[in-house]
Write a structure and sequence with these properties.
homodimer; alpha/beta; 16 helices; about 15% strand; 3-stranded antiparallel sheet; formyl-coa transferase, domain 3; Rossmann fold; 2 domains; elongated
Chain lengths: ~375, ~375
C-alpha cells in the first residue's frame, strides 16, 4: 500500500483496500465512513462522466459540494467495466482487495460478469457488500428504488407530519443514509468474523429493510394493537410531555419523560399545581390528556420568549432545546467542540461521528478526488497498461 | 460460555460477551444488533424496576412490546451498582467481557467508579462503548438529552415539513436509533482493530453528532451558499421530479431523477410533450421550475386512481411507489420475503437488516428477558454469591 493517497488519517481500518463500484449516495456514504476510519478506498467510476453525483448541486468553485461531502478521502480511477483491458485492472485490484462495495440494481453485477461466486473464486477473502433498494431477494428485488420511494413504502412518511395533515418526507435522504450506515456496520462485522474464519462473504443490505427498523414505534403499535398508527405532529407517541411548545416567540422542545422531570418543569414555569392534578399524575394519564396538558403548558410558556424558558427549564434540569435552523446547528459550539464540522478541499462539511480513542479525528481531511485523478498511478500499481 | 442462553442464533459475533449497562433506546438498540448477530449480551438492570422501558407501552399480555422489540435475545441480571457484593459480580463479568456498553449521562460512570481507566486496568482488551446525547466532551456534554431535543438542535426538524408550515419531528426516534447504529458500527470497528492491536479502547458516540451526519443536504446547501435551507415538503432539494403527487385518490411517490427517466414518465402519463419543453429540459431547469412541473404532472395524474398510475409508471421503468401506512409496510410481501418481520415470544417485530451469507437469519428469535431472569445462573457463573 506504499503508493496510496497521501494524507490519509489512521484508523481501525488502516491497511485495508476497498474497491468501490458504488455511486450517488448509499454506497459512497458507506465507503466514506471507511475512508474516514483509515481504509484505502478506490472509487471506480464510469469514464467521461463518472459518478452521477458529480453533476449534483450545490456547486462551489465549479465542484459539486454533494460529491465532495460523500467522497472525501477516496481515490478515483475511471474504468469501463465492459472493456477487457480495464477489467484486467479491476480484477487485479479485486484479487488484492479486502472489500468490494456496489449499489447497482440486483442482477447488474451478474450481467457484468462480476457476481459474487466468480469474485470469491478470484479472492476467497473478499467481502462483497451489496446495498440496494429492496435487497437481492424477494418479489421487488429487481425494481428501481430511490430514497423517497423507500420512505413511502416503509411507512415512515405515514407517521411523519401533523394529524389531519399530509404524510411527510423526512427532510433528508434517510433511507439512503441508514442503509449506507447498516452497510458499513455489516462489512465491519464481516471483517471481524474473517479474522477467525479466514474467509470472505457476501452482504445484502436493503434500503427498505434498513428503513423498516427505524419505524420502531409505529411497528410496535401495530403489532400490539392491530391499529394503524397515524401522524402525531411533534409529540412522542408514548411519553408526555415530549413535544414542541409555543412560547412568546419561537417554539421550543421540552422532554419531561418521567414524574420527577414533569414536577420540575411545572415548578420552573410557575405552575407547580399542574403536577398535582390527577389527569397529569402519571405518564399514562399525561399521554391520554396530552392536548389539555399542552394547552396548560403553552398558556404559561407564551407569556415569555423562548430564550427565557430555555434558560429557566434547563436550570431546573429538564431536557429542552431550541429548534435550530441548519446554520445554527452547524455553528453550534458543541458541534465544533467535537470536530463535527471539518474542512476538506476548502469546503466545510460534516465530520466523523465514530470517535474511537487512539485514532486521529482531524479537523481537516483529504479532498474528494477528481474523476480518474489517481488512474495512472493505480493502473501502474495493479499492473495494467 | 457453555452456560449462556439457549437458542441464540450464530453470527459474526458468536462467542463474544457484551456487558450492557444501557437503558431505554440508543444503547439497547446497539446491543440488540449484537445479540441478533450472535453475541451474548448480559443486560445489567437496576433491582426492582429494571430498565425504564419495561414500563413503556404498548403492552401485550402484560409485557411491554417496546421492551421486547429492543431487548430480544439478551440475558438479564439485576445488580445494584452501589452494592459491594453486586459490584463483585459486575467486575467478574467485566474481566471476561469483550465489550461494555453504557448510555448514562457523561460523568455518571466515573461517579460509580466505573470510568474507562479503571475498567481498562481490570481488562485491557475491553471495548468500552459510550453513547450519550451530546458526547463525552464539549460545553453541552453533561446536559440531559432526549430524542426530540436532539432532533431540534441538529436542524433535522427545520428541514422536515412543508413550506409555510411548522418544523416537524421525524415521526420516529431517529436520533436514538441513528446513534445506536453508529455505536454498533464503532464497536464492530474497534473489535476488528483489536484483532491486530490486542488492545481495547474507548468509544464516544453522540446522538447530536450522529444526527448531524444525517442532515447532509441541508449542511451542503448552507456550506455552499451560506443560505439557510428551509422546508420543501416532500420534494427532493436537488432532483426533480422527485416528490409525492396527487392522483385521482391517494398520493403516490415518483422519482424520475434523470432526463431519460423523465422522458419515460412523461410518455407513461400520456404527456410526452412535457419532456420537450425548454423549462423542463434538464434537472436544473426542472428544479428551478418545480412548481409548474408538479402542476402539469398532477393535471394528468389526478385523472385516474393511484393504482393505475403505479402500474403504468412502474411498467415504464420509472421508480414510484405508494405511501404506505405501517400495516401495509409490515404486511408487504417484500418485507416478509426478507424476514424483516419476525416473531419473538409471540410478538411480531422488525427483523435483522444485516444479512450476511453463512449465518442464520431466522424468522423466530429468542425472547427479551424478564427482569433478573438469568440472575441466579449468571451469579453462579461469575463467582458471586
Amino acid at each position: 500500500m506504499a503508493t496510496d493517497k497521501p494524507g490519509r488519517t489512521t484508523g481501525p481500518f488502516s491497511g485495508l483496500l476497498i474497491v468501490d463500484l458504488s455511486h450517488v449516495l448509499c454506497g459512497p456514504f458507506c465507503t466514506r465512513l471507511f475512508a474516514d476510519l483509515g481504509a484505502r478506498v478506490v472509487k471506480v467510476e464510469r469514464p467521461k462522466s463518472g459518478d452521477d453525483a458529480r453533476a449534483f448541486g450545490p456547486f462551489l468553485n465549479g465542484r459539486s459540494v454533494y460529491f465532495s461531502f460523500i467522497n472525501r478521502g477516496k481515490e478515483s480511477i475511471a474504468l469501463d467495466l465492459r472493456d477487457d483491458d480495464d477489467r484486467k485492472v479491476l480484477f487485479a485490484m479485486i484479487r488484492r482487495a479486502d472489500v468490494l462495495v456496489e449499489n447497482f440494481r440486483p442482477g447488474t453485477m451478474e450481467r457484468l460478469g462480476l457476481g459474487y461466486p466468480k469474485l470469491a473464486e478470484m479472492n476467497p477473502r473478499l467481502i462483497y457488500g451489496s446495498i440496494s433498494g429492496f435487497g437481492q431477494t424477494g418479489p421487488l428485488s429487481k425494481e428501481r428504488a430511490y430514497d423517497t420511494v423507500i420512505q413511502g413504502i416503509s411507512g415512515i412518511m405515514s407517521v411523519t407530519g401533523y394529524p389531519g395533515g399530509p404524510p411527510t418526507r423526512v427532510g433528508t435522504s434517510v433511507a439512503d443514509l441508514t442503509s449506507g450506515l447498516y452497510g458499513f456496520a455489516a462489512i465491519a462485522s464481516a471483517l471481524y468474523a474473517r479474522e477467525s474464519t479466514g474467509k470472505g462473504t457476501k452482504i445484502d443490505v436493503a434500503m427498505l429493510d434498513s428503513m423498516m427498523t427505524f419505524v420502531e414505534h409505529g411497528v410496535m403499535e401495530y403489532s400490539a394493537t392491530g391499529e394503524i398508527p397515524g401522524r402525531l405532529g411533534n409529540r412522542h407517541p408514548l411519553i408526555t410531555p415530549f413535544d414542541t411548545f409555543r412560547t412568546g416567540d419561537e417554539p421550543i422542545v421540552v422532554c419531561a419523560g418521567d414524574d420527577e422531570l414533569f414536577a420540575r418543569l411545572c415548578g420552573a414555569i410557575g405552575r407547580p399545581e399542574l403536577a398535582d392534578e390527577r389527569r397529569f399524575a402519571s405518564n399514562a394519564e399525561r399521554t391520554a390528556n396530552h392536548a389539555a396538558l399542552k394547552q396548560a403548558l403553552e398558556a404559561a410558556l407564551t407569556t415569555k420568549p423562548s430564550q427565557h424558558w430555555l434558560d429557566t427549564i434547563a436550570r431546573a434540569g429538564v431536557p429542552c432545546g431550541p429548534i435550530n435552523t441548519v446554520d445554527k446547528a452547524v455553528e453550534h459550539p458543541q458541534t465544533n467542540a467535537r470536530n463535527m464540522m471539518i474542512v476538506s478541499d476548502g469546503i466545510r462539511m460534516t465530520g466523523n461521528p465514530v470517535k474511537i480513542d487512539g485514532y486521529d479525528d482531524p479537523a481537516e481531511r483529504p479532498a474528494a478526488p477528481g474523476l480518474d485523478a489517481d488512474g495512472i498511478r493505480i493502473r501502474r500499481e495493479f499492473g495494467g497498461r
